[in-house]
């Protein structure tokens, strides 16, 4: 019986090497994440085992939040304990693991250039917010949007797409998941977000009590950053809803 596979193509060999390196790092340092097996590394492509399933939906948020907290806690314990958010970390082969500050400063400046921010005062406010959030234990960011999780009929959660990986504060990638669930399916009620944050913190602090530190104010800071950083993708990739970085009122749908 043949095994179904999925091949993803890239523009350059460097992008292939980067995605393969990220896959290997996650497999080693974030074992709570179940990854499809990487079976073939080609000059401009990667081939993975095929996983049958659906993308994440809003009802999956509690389980995904706990999974992210567990994965971030594991990565901090095994490799990121000494990593700083304002400078690149290093993979085992010496290649830089992107820092938190630099790539997002550049992205926010591009948002101003492309009209997603009204003026330089707004850019300055967001750059200040970015600097404010660059504190505490270091986790990783791998773009946790609904399409990057595959949930099987048996309820197993697979994490896909290792193209982009950077350092990030604890809770930052959870905020990306919340933001993109809203963009995909519509507003989330406040209790659902609060419950997800509790699940994330509880899973993270099982690795070390210092890791369950993300409070609601900090999560809202991350959501405000994601509101601007995701703005160019509105109307694309299934993002059919608009949203505010502040959650909808308690009890609303």
From TrEMBL:
It comes from Streptomyces thermoalcalitolerans. This is Aminoglycoside phosphotransferase domain-containing protein. The lineage of its organism: Bacteria, Bacillati, Actinomycetota, Actinomycetes, Kitasatosporales.
